[in-house]
Design goal:
- The complex is a heterodimer of chains A (about 110) and B (about 550).
- The mean pLDDT of chain A is about 85.
- Chain A has 3 helices and no strands.
- Chain A is mainly α.
- Chain A has helices spanning about 1-20, 25-45, 70-100.
- Chain B has 23 helices and 2 strands.
- Chain B has helices at about 1-10, 15-25, 35-60, 90-110, 120-135, 140-155, 165-195, 200-205, 210-230, 240-245, 250-275, 280, 285-305, 310-330, 335-360, 365-370, 380-390, 400-415, 425-440, 450-480, 490-510, 510-525, 525-535; strands at about 70, 85.
- A two-stranded antiparallel sheet of chain B has the order 1-2.
- In chain B, helix 15 (about 335-360) packs antiparallel against helix 19 (about 425-440).
- The longest helix of chain B is centred in the first third of the chain and has 32 residues, at about 165-195.
- Chain B is globular.
- The model of chain B is unreliable at about 275-285 and about 365-375 (pLDDT under 50).
- Classes of the chains: A mainly alpha (about 110), B mainly alpha (about 550).
- The interface between A and B is medium-sized, with 34 and 32 residues.
């Protein structure tokens, strides 16, 4: 399972990085979204991958059979924050499109 | 009454965070046109924040009271709950933020606050994020406060709208979103290795790690470091900085001067907690910080020399200031650090003044109305607001305005260049003397000549900044076409005068201030007392 998650994160991060280096604002925002997905998965994976483990400890139980609840709560925070920031970026992007008349990130529409 | 004061005193650490949040949220309920009510709420909030910070400052500076005030949210003890830690360094940073914030807000009241919706709320949220980032003792909480201050800063950077601002804002938002991603990767790696997010607990656990885990921890911290270097504007992660800062509205740019210092502060805090943590960690980052700092100073210096507009110049001056701080704190020597903190106060306030002056100096008769540009979004009240504003007269035209502006500009130039008699000189002299004194011992993991490189680069940059600022001053004030008059409204002159008075006070009261910064850097050095006060259980209980 580790290898599947690792490849998934890697693919998401690679495409994300490639897309934020593209000249169109829409590509940049999709790239940032993919990067945040990669990071959210990464945070979850940092709590060790546990299958069928509750994130709550019962008294006297073996801690290694339970999922770590902290990364799960962290990832919740980070999902909310990155989602709202992406929405905010989308607004700036639309404003830039309206004001400069092009969707190039530098607002000059030179190259493709 | 005394009971109430006691309760307030117990919760004083959280006031600079909670109060602007409440005020900002409640101001959303006020109609955009109730400017006077908003101005009153903002001013009262800032006054109360100042009072709370002053109280904290008195507590941590007084030798008879504890020098570290730990506030446990919901009274959960340290590694499990989130703590706010107010020690001398963080209180000093909060104080600088509040003072500069108050000046910027006063300046904005005269015009900028009315040139677009929800300025007051965004500004107070930015202050909240800054204070929170300085006070928190938890890495993930730091991320949250970073996002709070960044979200507010996105709105503020675009405040006033216009093509230039939106273009600069687009880059600014994109880069900071990418930096936040990097931040999260770093935080989660650190958590994966140590199982904690509390900075004190992290410092305690870092010393006990095996060599395999230590490699991962170092990787995590280096990734975190990259995120902080983006915020602090270190070369080569800072090409966005001059464009964004010079495009932002004057009072916004002034408070942005503190934002780069958040990055420097966090690097300083984490370095102080983690560097002494065992021999193996001592190598982490110190020489890189030195080289990046020097490169930033040089890049900023050439930028200052090359820029023709004052706002852009101020943006590069911000880089010179953070670069100097990064290069100097890399030495880790407590004597160097105490002068560096003194330099930080003076240079942050000085850059704030320059940003405020930029607008006043460049504004000529009749240009005020022309500067107001079309909005990005159409608000229901927007047209009404603008029409209302167009009727407002420009205020008193001071015949002395140009003279006073020139005097203020010259004064701040002296401060930033570091010429006597101002605090800039005392600070730079102190830093360089201490760097030379510490010699090769200061930069333990850099070549022996590192100290002389630091001295050379900082003196060279001071000289170049002097040339550039004087050239600009001559162009702006002396080589003007005759008959140019400048307009300064009283509400704009007051904050500039206030900040300059602060700089004078900083110079006159150099001894007590330096004593305080020396105590602050000694407090950073005394890591064990930080650890024990944070990790101790709630009052009256043993951990």
């Amino acid at each position: 399972m580790e290898i599947v998650v690792a490849i998934g994160i890697g693919v998401l991060a690679t495409t994300g990085v490639y897309l934020i280096l593209r000249p169109r604002t829409f590509q940049v925002i999709i790239g940032l979204s993919l990067l945040t997905y990669a990071v959210n998965l990464f945070i979850l994976a940092m709590g060790r991958l546990v299958v069928d483990g509750a994130p709550l400890l019962a008294e006297g139980a073996d801690p290694s059979t339970f999922a770590d609840p902290v990364p799960q709560s962290l990832v919740l925070t980070s999902i909310v924050i990155s989602f709202s920031m992406t929405a905010l970026f989308l607004v700036v992007l639309l404003a830039a499109r309206g004001i400069t008349g092009t969707d190039h990130v530098d607002g000059d529409g030179m190259s493709a | 009454m005394t009971g109430l004061l006691e309760v307030l005193d117990r919760h004083v650490s959280i006031v600079p965070i909670l109060l602007p949040l409440i005020a900002a949220a409640s101001m959303l309920l006020l109609h955009e046109r109730r400017r006077r009510a908003k101005a009153v709420v903002s001013s009262v909030t800032l006054a109360a924040m100042f009072a709370a910070t002053l109280r904290l400052l008195m507590v941590v500076a007084d030798p008879s009271t504890p020098e570290i005030v730990v506030y446990r949210l919901a009274n959960w003890s340290a590694p499990y709950g989130i703590v706010l830690v107010a020690d001398r360094l963080s209180v000093l940073m909060v104080m600088v933020t509040v003072l500069l914030g108050a000046a910027g807000m006063t300046y904005a009241l005269s015009r900028w606050a009315t040139l677009g919706p929800r300025f007051h709320s965004l500004y107070l949220l930015l202050l909240m994020g800054l204070c929170g980032a300085f006070l928190t003792g938890d890495l993930f909480n730091l991320y949250v406060f970073f996002e709070v201050l960044l979200a507010a800063s996105y709105g503020l950077a675009l405040h006033g709208s216009g093509k230039r601002r939106v273009k600069a804002g687009l880059h600014y938002v994109a880069i900071n979103l990418a930096a936040s991603v990097v931040f999260l990767v770093g935080v989660s790696l650190v958590y994966a290795v140590t199982g904690t997010l509390n900075m004190a607990d992290l410092a305690a656990k870092a010393g006990q790690l095996g060599p395999d885990d230590l490699v991962l921890l170092k990787a995590g911290l280096s990734i975190l470091g990259v995120a902080f270097l983006v915020k602090s504007g270190a070369w080569p992660l800072s090409f966005w900085l001059p464009t964004t800062y010079s495009a932002a509205a004057a009072p916004v740019a002034a408070i942005f001067a503190v934002m780069t210092k958040v990055g420097v502060y966090v690097i300083l805090r984490l370095a102080a907690l983690l560097w002494p943590g065992g021999e193996a960690l001592a190598l982490f980052g110190s020489s890189w910080l030195l080289y990046l700092g020097l490169a930033t100073v040089l890049f900023g210096t050439f930028g200052v020399l090359a820029s023709s507009e004052l706002p852009r110049m101020a943006g590069y001056l911000t880089m010179v200031s953070s670069g100097t701080l990064l290069a100097v704190i890399a030495s880790g020597d407590p004597v160097v650090l105490s002068s560096a903190l003194y330099y930080l106060i003076g240079s942050t306030i000085g850059i704030g003044v320059i940003f405020l002056l930029c607008e006043l100096v460049n504004r000529r008769d009749g240009e005020v109305a022309a500067q107001a540009v079309g909005p990005v979004f159409h608000d229901d009240f927007e047209t009404q607001l603008r029409n209302e504003f167009e009727g407002v007269e420009l205020g008193v035209t001071l015949p002395l305005a140009t003279t006073l502006l020139a005097a203020a500009f010259f004064f701040v130039a002296l401060q930033l260049v570091g010429l006597p008699p101002l605090s800039g000189f005392i600070a730079k002299f102190g830093m360089l003397a201490a760097v030379v004194e510490a010699g090769s011992g200061g930069y333990a993991h850099a070549p022996a000549s590192a100290a002389w490189w630091v001295v050379g680069v900082i003196v060279f940059s001071g000289f170049c900044v002097l040339v550039a600022l004087m050239r600009k001053g001559v162009n702006v004030f002396w080589a003007e076409p005759a008959g140019t008059t400048r307009v300064v409204r009283p509400l704009e002159a007051v904050p500039v005068a206030f900040l300059i008075a602060l700089l004078v006070a900083l110079t006159v009261l150099a001894q007590p201030t330096l004593r305080y910064t020396a105590a602050a850097s000694a407090g950073l050095e005394a890591r064990s007392s930080y650890l024990s006060s944070v990790l101790q259980g709630p009052e009256g209980e043993e951990p």
